[in-house]
């Protein structure tokens, strides 16, 4: 294979139950000039043996075996090994439409993009049912022309897309130019990478088609056990704010960021169980709402009035106590 068009970077950690379907969906892609960089992050459930099977079956599979340090570290390691013109970061419990990489690659080549966005949906594992998720990519907020950048989006740029990497294709040249890396923390480790890319990209394209299926209701997945890392979102947001300021773009993106900081803080609070729910609420009230410069802003400042009202209710309840 003379040219590797896309490097698919796949962190793997204890996903034996779903890994065959994931790997088959990648190797069955209509775009053949790809490599699959599998980074086994210390699996103990038999995932390692599955990867070794695929290494023997297909020369495009390159597997690396490391001690458990998290998906962010695994993705960074995978990028360092990758040789492709574009990067695709996929999750090893999800699966993909056969033409995902081909359509994204063709779009990237046509418009010489830094990022290609595409749509996703959810696969409810227990029900074996696909569920639409239009909120993962707000198509009405994108322009009707390509390429485009953040200034052409008509909504808060941090709400038009979600801060995960697996429904996007990234130019290797763009990633390396801006030294984009994943945070090496347990959860929310892709937010900094993705939103920094959205902020910095000069040319983006979109494939208006569902190309990836996110598996949901996996009880042991990171997203369902965030109680162990309830403060990671705060670290991700503060790192993103620092990057925006370093790029000299705070004057332009301040309002969008503060609105998103409120949104993401409330989302984390609303989806945490006790005792971490109360721990996070107290931290927000006593420190983090101030740190994110939410405190003192009027209701009119916020795009989502319901989120502002919940914020005020949290403050009122805290004062009662």
Short synopsis of the structure:
This protein is an alpha/beta fold.
Radius of gyration: 20 Å
Instruction: Determine the strand fraction and express it as a percent band.
Output: 15-25%
Report the biggest beta sheet as strand number plus sense, adding barrel if it closes.
9 strands, mixed
CATH class of the largest domain: Alpha Beta
Q: Give the terminus-to-terminus CA distance.
A: 66 Å
CATH topology assignment of the largest domain: Spore Coat Polysaccharide Biosynthesis Protein SpsA, Chain A
How many separate structural domains? 2
Q: Give me the number of helical elements.
A: 11
List unreliable stretches of 5+ residues: 220-224
Can you write the helix and strand succession as a string? EHEHEHEEHEEHEHHEHHHH
What is the tally of beta strands? Answer: 9
Share in helix:
40-55%
CATH architecture classification name of the largest domain: Alpha-Beta Complex
Q: State mean pLDDT (0 to 100 scale).
A: 94
Could you say which overall geometry the principal axes of the C-alpha atoms support?
globular
């Amino acid at each position: 294979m003379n040219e590797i068009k896309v490097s698919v970077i796949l962190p793997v950690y204890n996903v034996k139950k779903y890994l065959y379907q994931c790997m088959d969906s990648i190797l069955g892609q209509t775009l053949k000039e790809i490599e699959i960089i599998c980074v086994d992050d210390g699996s103990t459930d038999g995932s390692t043996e599955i990867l070794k099977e695929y290494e023997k079956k297909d020369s495009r599979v390159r597997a690396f075996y490391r001690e458990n340090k998290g998906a962010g570290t695994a993705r960074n390691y995978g990028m360092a090994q990758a040789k492709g013109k574009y990067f695709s970061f996929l999750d090893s419990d999800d699966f993909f439409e056969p033409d995902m990489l081909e359509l994204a690659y063709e779009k990237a080549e046509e418009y010489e993009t830094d990022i290609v966005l595409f749509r996703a949906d959810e696969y409810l594992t227990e029900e074996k049912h696909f569920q639409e998720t239009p909120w993962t990519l707000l198509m009405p907020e994108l322009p009707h022309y390509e390429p485009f950048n953040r200034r052409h989006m008509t909504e808060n740029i941090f709400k038009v897309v979600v801060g995960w990497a697996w429904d996007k294709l990234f130019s290797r040249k763009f990633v390396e130019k801006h030294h984009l890396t994943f945070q090496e923390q347990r959860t929310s480790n892709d937010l900094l990478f993705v939103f920094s890319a959205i902020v910095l990209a000069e040319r983006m394209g979109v494939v208006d088609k569902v190309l990836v299926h996110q598996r949901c209701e996996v009880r042991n997945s990171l997203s369902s056990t965030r109680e162990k890392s309830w403060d990671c979102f705060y670290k991700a947001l503060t790192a993103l704010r620092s990057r925006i300021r370093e790029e000299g773009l705070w004057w332009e993106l301040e309002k969008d960021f503060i609105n998103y900081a409120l949104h993401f803080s409330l989302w984390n609070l609303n989806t945490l169980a006790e005792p971490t729910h109360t721990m996070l609420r107290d931290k927000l009230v006593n420190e983090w709402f101030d740190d994110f410069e939410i405190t003192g802003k009027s209701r009119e400042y916020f795009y989502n009035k319901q989120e502002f009202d919940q914020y005020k209710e949290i403050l009122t309840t805290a004062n009662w106590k």
